[in-house]
């Protein structure tokens, strides 16, 4: 991520937007279970908010520096940080009760790799497990924020079919003011 983007992700504004808008829209009071995986934790703002309500949270982050910083900051908590790629995760199949992703999917550089991430999420979920995600709707403002950065927005109208192909059932997509959310269940 570029410097401006990283600086935004650690602001009080972003924490409040996640806590008060994005996460409630996505989670809607749904229990995530006892072993939750977060893909694309970045600097850990969502990790900090999620860990309050779950027994164990594993955060996967591709950027080695961000993963190291989050691991250091999370030491002694219920959070395990793993430096890994969401398209090829080092976890046993069927491990997690739920997988979440908040405003990260647009950082995966191609549709093919996004679909590999969806397939990996399905692989590591237990039967009946939930995938809960939220991402930003495409905009010129977001494209500008991602200057010299990866910006591959996910078309919300394609998400349900893409998740069905990855092995999910009951994918429900909702479009909100500036973001979309999805709730999908692994059969």
Model description:
The protein is of the alpha/beta class and 187 residues long. Helix content is 37%, strand content 26%. Strands 3-2-1-4-5-7-6 form a seven-stranded mixed β-sheet, sandwiched between helices. Helix 5 (111-124) crosses helix 7 (156-166). The longest helix has 16 residues, at 12-27. The relative contact order is 0.16. The mean pLDDT is 95.
Q: Tags for this entry?
A:
7 helices; single chain; 37% helix; Rossmann fold; alpha/beta; 187 residues
Query: How would the global form be characterised?
Result: globular
Radius of gyration, in Å, reads 15 Å
CATH architecture: 3-Layer(aba) Sandwich
What is the rounded distance between the termini?
35 Å
- CATH homologous superfamily caption: Vaccinia Virus protein VP39
Instruction: Please identify the top-level CATH class.
Output: Alpha Beta
Number of helices: 7
Succession of helices and strands: HHEHEHEEHEHHEE
What share of residues are in beta strands?
A: 25-35%
* Mean pLDDT, all residues: 95
Total beta-strand segments: 7
Strand count, sense and barrel status of the largest sheet are:
7 strands, mixed
Low-confidence stretches: none
CATH topology label: Rossmann fold
- How many domains make up the 3D coordinates? 1
């Amino acid at each position: 991520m570029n410097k401006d983007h990283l600086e935004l992700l650690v602001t009080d504004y972003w924490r409040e937007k996640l806590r008060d808008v994005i996460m409630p829209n996505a989670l809607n009071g749904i229990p995530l279970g006892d072993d939750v995986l977060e893909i694309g934790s970045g600097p850990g703002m969502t990790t900090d908010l999620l860990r309050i309500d779950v027994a164990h949270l594993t955060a996967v982050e591709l950027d080695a520096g961000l993963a190291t910083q989050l691991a250091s900051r999370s030491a002694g908590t219920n959070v395990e940080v793993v430096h890994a790629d969401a398209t090829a995760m080092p976890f046993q199949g069927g491990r997690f009760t739920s997988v979440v992703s908040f405003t990260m999917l647009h950082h995966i550089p191609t549709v093919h790799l996004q679909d590999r991430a969806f397939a990996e999420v399905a692989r590591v979920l237990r039967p009946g497990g939930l995938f809960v995600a939220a991402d930003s709707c495409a905009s010129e403002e977001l494209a500008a924020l991602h200057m010299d950065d990866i910006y591959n927005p996910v078309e919300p109208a394609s998400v349900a079919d893409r998740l069905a192909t990855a092995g999910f059932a009951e994918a429900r997509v909702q479009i909100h003011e500036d973001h979309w959310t999805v709730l999908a269940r692994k059969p």
